[in-house]
Specification:
By secondary structure, the protein is an alpha/beta fold. 41% of the residues lie in helices and 18% in strands. Strand 4, helix 7 and strand 5 form a beta-alpha-beta unit.
Length: 274
């Protein structure tokens, strides 16, 4: 009897090692990473740019590189959610388990969007705050939790972005950035020459956090593929610069970088209108 009880105890311990304590306690499925893809759809983005983003993420998710990264993870499965944001946010694809090409293709097939014609400002802080809430009770326990935020300008609505970033980091969530440094969209007054530095100093954070800038839209799909592989495979903290960008495009910002620059631009515009 004593030997039988010992065997039962060993089997129980092995089950705990396989499922993880959080999965056993809460009935959640353990995954390599819980990843929120937070994509900018503000008014400064043209319809063509919005289409490029949707197609770029869909193509990246089903690429050999990303599917391989998913399969080769410690657990071989990830949880993904796709969110569009501007002044407000909407979930386009809710939390989905992806473990193979079929799952990636199913997720990519849902990446459709509906856009209205109203003027939408840019609230990176709102996007971060919203994305952070999506991890609560989502049915998954990730070895890592990551918010991947892309955008073509600085925060100009909602609370200061640095405050939102700090609150997200305090929850143990990593933030990575994909600054869109193209010049196609409307509203040139929002274009920052050093948007990559803005993201590095004011938006991203956490272990192994990184920034990959996009300088031309034709490079967007490649940048998304690289970014997803890095996030899923948890590569080193300092990935090489985007192959289409010189190395000095991603560099530490000065200690006195103005993280309220977007709000100041918006205030100046209002003063001009008045």
């Amino acid at each position: 009897m004593r030997a039988r009880l010992a065997i039962v105890s060993i089997l129980a311990a092995c089950a705990a090692c396989t499922l993880g304590p959080a999965a056993l306690a809460q009935g959640e499925l353990e995954v390599d990473v819980e990843l929120v893809l937070a994509v900018d759809v503000s008014r400064s983005m043209t319809p063509r740019e919005l289409e490029i983003q949707r197609r770029g993420y869909a193509e990246a998710l089903v690429s050999d590189e990303v599917v391989s990264a998913i399969r080769n993870g410690m657990l071989g499965r990830v949880a993904l959610a796709y969110v569009e944001w501007a002044g407000e946010q909407r979930v386009v694809v809710d939390w989905t388990l992806v473990r193979d090409r079929a799952g990636a293709e199913a997720f990519a097939g849902q990446l459709t969007a509906v856009f209205d014609s109203s003027l939408r400002r840019t609230s990176i802080s709102g996007a971060l705050d919203f994305a952070a809430t999506l991890f609560d009770g989502n049915g998954f326990t990730g070895l890592r939790r990551v918010i991947d935020v892309s955008g073509d300008g600085p925060n100009n609505q909602g609370r200061p972005v640095a405050a939102a970033r700090d609150a997200v980091l305090a929850r143990g969530i990593v933030i990575n950035g994909l600054p869109l440094m193209t010049r196609e969209g409307m509203g040139s007054q929002w274009h920052l020459q050093d948007l990559d530095e803005y993201y590095r100093h004011c938006v991203i954070g956490g272990p192994a956090a990184f920034v990959i800038p996009v300088l031309e839209w034709r490079h967007f799909p490649q940048a998304v593929r690289r970014k997803l592989v890095l996030e899923i495979a948890s590569r080193p903290a300092h990935p090489p610069a985007h192959p289409t960008a010189p190395h000095d495009r991603v560099r530490p910002a000065a200690a006195d970088y103005d993280c309220l620059i977007g709000e100041r631009i918006w205030r100046d515009m209002q003063n001009d209108w008045n």
